[in-house]
Each structure stands twice: as structure tokens, then as C-alpha cells.
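Write out the 3D structure for:
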Amino acid sequence: MAVFNLTPSDPSSFILKGIPGLEAAHIWISIPFSTSYIISLLGNFMVLFVVGKEQTLHKPMYLLLCMLALTDISTSTSVVLKALCIFWFKLEVITVGGCLTQMFFFHAGTTMHSAVLVTMAFDRYVAICNPLRYATILTNAQIAKLGLVGLIRAVLFSLPLPLLLSRQPFCANRIIPHTYCDHMAVAKMSCGDITVNRMYGLVIPFVVNGSDLTLIALSYGLIIRAVLRISSKKAHQKALNTCTAHICVMLISYPPFFFSTVTHRFGQGIAPHIHIILANLCFLLPTMLNPIIYGAKTKELREKVGKYTYRMWSLGGH
């Protein structure tokens, strides 16, 4: 029971306040939070289940979808469960260790998410520009290796964030005005010099995501060049349709992330609750919409999902 007696100055804990200024509305805010989380879990687990069960889907494109689904599940779970505890039960206390662990998993998840999107762009490039060599260039083993490289990169870039903060002295006021342990929100609780934290927290996301976006842009530049060389308009449409889902996922992932990162550091005139809502939307929307977009835009996956949904519905009816 000692945990409930912790004060904001307790050296072993922080207090997460949720969305400051909107505490009275926390219970209402929890409705879209929990709804999007449930939809995300259902959609992503459905992708994992269907791809796992269907031998015909054991292809690079669908293995990448599984990587994206696993990343989305881990990222949203690392944040949403604690946020709902704050909204529903006022369980605002989080240990320093728990806070730094949550921070690592969240940032590693978002970095891995970006790596998977890059690999997907490369997959589309090979499928359109080198279709005859696709099966030899992108094997399942190659996809597994690329996924491992992305995971190692995510760990290496994300680990310094909690390590740098673990060396910082924290002030008596340990109240974090956020729903989760965001790197800069925690760094601002420090009494020490956080220049390195600020620089690393700002430069690394732009370096990582900037390099990823450059590779994606290069892939799509080569794809567009290859498509323009095709004389048939029908072939144009078919080639571009294979990229539609990936483009939609990028549009709901990168722009909100960069906007949130910039406004959190330079948008002093923006109300704190706007910052926090934007930061939450950055991971809530993609994790919820990714399986829906790919399910709607990928015919083979859509048909298999429909088959299993109908089968489960039939069993439930009996």
C-alpha cells in the first residue's frame, strides 16, 4: 500500500498527470483512447493470425505487414495501458525505472516502425522495377535479416535516451504533465544541464526519420521513372495501386510525428494539452489505421481476412 503514499518529491517515482487542464474530462478522453487501442489490437492480431495460418501469404510483403503489426502492438501497449490507468483509476505514480523502460520501448517502437516503412518501400521498388528478380532478391530470409537490422538500429538509437536521463539529478517537483514518459517531458524535470538530452532528442528523430524518408523518396523516384517507361495506362494504374496502401500509411505516420516534435520544442505559445493530444495521436492513429488500410487495399489479404471472419461468425452463430 506504500505506493499510494508517494509524494511528487519521492526520489523513486514520478507523477504522470495525464492531460493537464482537461483532468475533469479524462473519463471522456479515455473513450477514444480505449476504442482506438482495441481496434488496433483486433486489426493487428487479425493480420498476424491470417498471415500465420495462410501458407500462400508467407511472402515478403506480408511478413513486412506482420513486422509492422508487431511494432504497432508493442508501441501502443507501452503507452495506452498506463494512460488508461491514469484516466480511469487515477494511478498516476510511475517508478523512475518504469518510466525509463516505457520511454525506451516507445521510442524503439517508433524507430522500428520507420525502418519497416523503408523496407516496404524497397519491397515495392523491387516488385515494380525488377519483377522477374523479385523472388531471388527479396526472399523471406532477406526480409528477416532486414527486420533484424531495423531492430538493432532501433535499440541502438533509443537506448541512449533513458541512459542519459538516468544520470540526471531530478528536482523536488516530479510531476510530469503528460500521459506517458516522453523524453523531453522527463528531461524538463531535471535540475541539471539537459543540453545533450535536448540535442540528442531533437537531432536523432530528424536524422533517423530524415534518412528513412530520403531512402523512401529515392525508392519512389525510381518507381515513378520505371512506371513512366511503361506505355500501357492500365499497367501504370496497376503498378501505382500496389503502392497506395504504403503511401497512405506514410502520410498518417510521418507528418504528425514531425509536427509534434517541432511544436513540442518550439511551440511555446501552444497550450500544453494540445501538445499532449498531438503526441498521442502520432502513435494512436497509425497503429489503429495501418491494418485497416492494408486490409482494404490488399486484395489477397482482404479475401483471407474475409474468409476467417466469415468462419468465426458462422461458428459464433452456431
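Residues 96-129 form the longest helix (34 residues).
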